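Hi C.,

You asked whether I'd gotten around to modeling the 420-residue construct. I have! Everything is below, sequence then structure, no commentary in between.
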Amino acid sequence: MKIEMAQTLADRATGTVDVASVVGGANGVEPGPPVPTLVAGGSERSKLAGVRVLTVDDDPINLQVLHNILSLEGCELTEAADGEAALALFADDYLPDLVLLDVMMPRLTGFEVCERLRRRYSGNELPVILLTAKNQVSDLVLGLASGANDYLTKPFSKSELIARIDTHLSLSKAHTAEAENRRKAEELQQARAIQLSMLPQQLPEVPYLEIAVHMKTATEVGGDYYDFFPQEDGGLYVATGDATGHGIPAGMMVAMTKSAIKALDVQSPHTLLKQANQVIRAVNPVNMTMALNALSISDSGFAISSAAMPPVFLFRADRGEAEEILVEGLPLGAMAESDYSLRVVEFKRGDSLVLISDGLPELRNESGEPLGYEAVQRIVSEHGETSADDLLARIVELGEKWGRGETQDDDITVVVMKRV
């Protein structure tokens, strides 16, 4: 049977096999003219190019035939003359993309080798195709029960072998992609849970302020953060921030920042930022940074300090227009020692203060154009005389119309406070 199989495979792989029979001696299989190692050629790249394949067979002719077929496809081949040699490769942390495994071998059969491989690798991690001349139903059942992904009966054609390999590699890649997508989805859920747990569960009640807040998390969950800290003297501390990066690391940075703010004595905003920067710089395990606005608000005005946050917009009721207030400063964690400036601003009855994260002005439309800061300032000027809720609704509507149908790459946070 092996002679017939070798002849058939050799013919289909453009090689020859000569069979000699000597009276009184043993039958033997002798190679005819050497079959050259074929190299993938032509302008079209094979789908199997670069695929790592382990071929396991105790017959050197079968190994040579497989080598010629698969090298033509550009596969990276490793050969093992029996099951023990194959398992020894795995013991050295070798991991191919797929295994072609002969069934009938001395010492360890292909069934036994496959069973041992399955103790370490699933069928999705390591596809195994059994190659055998045994074609009984019981043999097929035994092969699949051992953990094989497929069972290819000898002799087989080159096209059939390549098609089976391609199918199982595609299934393996699809499973890997699905598992990665599940992992990412779980990480995003965890990151979103961390982020939301850091936000206040309800807005503070301040007699001289109307407060409205909007946050829309991005697909990959950014690091936006806002918080309110009512003071015993009737004042209000407000923080808005944006951690670098996305996912769980950003959530960790937000948690660290909130912990630092709550642990430190509430002082002037610029002093608070300086101390928070020292804490984050000292304990930051992921080498990330945090942009943060800190405001101290009273019924007469507010003081603001900023660590690399976007400008805030203040609508002046007596002038009917919004002005931009930009306070410069390095993000928290960027440098061990950073000083932050402080700006004190009058906040009159009827004025509205708008704080945003950069996700809003950087939101892109279908043409890839960012919304920009001027558009936000313009909408604040046009609707700043309305209530905090109405002004917030107008700002949110602006972003939704601009980025309609486009993927949101970053969190969008808007905090509106109106002096009443």
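If it helps when you're writing up: The CA atoms of residues 192 and 221 lie 6 Å apart.

Thanks,
B.
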